[in-house]
Structures
1.
Amino acid sequence: MRPGAPILRFAPSPNGRLHLGHAYSALLNADLARRMGGLCRLRIEDIDPVRSRPDLVAAIVTDLAWLGLTYPEPLRHQSRHLDSYRVTLQGLIARGLAYPCFCSRGQIRARAAASAGNPHDPDGAPLYPGTCRGLDPGITAERLARGEPHTWRIDMAAALRCADGSLDYEAFDGAETRRVAADPARWGDAVIARRDVPTSYHLAVVHDDAEEGITHVVRGRDLEAATDLHVLLQRLLGLPTPRYHHHGLILDPDGEKLAKSRGSQSLADLRAAGVTPEQIRARLGFA
């Protein structure tokens, strides 16, 4: 690969078997990397200690190899980099840009429902009302010392003040590019570290994209709104912002997005039924 060549990545989570939607994204990333004279990495986003399983990691590698896709070694497994995420998180905390939240999901739903207009974030979850943002520092320290379960949330107002400038990114579609204004405020005080691990999807993906030198992020349209929050985190952490492309989703006969949780037919099911990789590629437009 020539110096300065584009670097893309396909980054599945090992909490279920890959389906046609994953296949489309993986094939698109590989195809774009080839056409741009770059490479595509495989990242295993396995920060969920409950749902991520080694057998599902192996299944991902098997399914992608069956499709004819190979990736540079070593693969990045997020579960092996928790200490790095912890350092990144502590940096945000030290700057007053993140605070602990002791609220349960039920408490958040109840308080958000009582708020004017019952606001929600782009994922449809109740917008956090900021209950723990103004807690007395002494009380917060005591609760942390007692080991009370908590998440860490970004202080959105403080983060926007710190970013102090234009929050936008470059979107690309083929040879066409355009500037997109990010609006991270619509996420409110989003969770950036979970109760069980010192990171979240948002924090880990921003950290890893910079660590792996990713220049182009190609992922589903369902993650387009998350890019607003990612651009903000990149600014706060002094990290480069890749170019982004958010592709259309593969839908089931009911017009719903394919999903592991909905029991969508997996690539392994299709393989067992005699479907070939060539048929998958043709079906998804990569013949």
2.
Amino acid sequence: MAEIHSLAYVGLGVSDLERWHWFATHILGMQVSKRDEHGISLRMDEYCQRFFLEQNPIDDLLVAGWQLRTAAELESYVAELRDKGVPVEALSDDLLRRRMVEKAYSCQDPNGFTHEFFFGHTVAELADSFRSPVLRGGFVTGDLGIGHILPFAKNGPQTVAFYRDVLKLRVSDYIREEIHPGVLVDATFFHTATGRHHSIATAQAPTPKVLNHFMVQVEQMDDVGLAYDRAVKAGIPIVLELGHHPNDKTFSFYAQTPSGFNFEMGWGGIVIDDANWEVRAYSEMSDWGHKRNVVL
């Protein structure tokens, strides 16, 4: 039975490409692989494109790109989606070139953004290894994908059912916490077949933006602290200070992107073995740190 391998790329619509160019390279430590009339392609490893930025006043999430292992698995997965009544479209040749993939399909999320499913990514030449402008190490990607995203849900139960029953993502755990008097966060976390604790999470919230945050994971703990210092020095609003999550065991901080949604820079984190995993519900987002400076 076909199943998603990993969250392999994310597309963002941003209003200030120049600011994002600087931010992605000098704060996050990504590498620009291409810039043209469509926007900016960003590398985190040997993949030619892990994030792409398109000039767009929406300043929000556009696309989540899910990778399948083989062309046959992709076709089987898409057939299952259609059997469930999901309208699925093949990407045009132009979009395939822009995504730098061999074959891909797309469908709409209940919350207003696009999910793409693909096979066959483009990799850089051997001589062109990933070089971060600022990281001491690199990003944790490979089979685990790029990290994770947390898009807000307009309808929590409908969104959870879509991720679990339609996309066939696996529930990792839940967190239910009152972060302010009368403000309850009820978040559900999902992982793919390769086991990064979560590639996507969701929580219902009355907000104009879809994306709450994206997370990237680094190989060296020092790179979290150094990124924190770079963000503070640059005057970037820190949303959650350095801290630790009890469910995925990640050490991280959160800060604001130039588009107003947030990013998380993390180190550590669980890789789930489903044969030995118990789904739990937690009562707190953080077991230490993560002092809140800006309302999420």
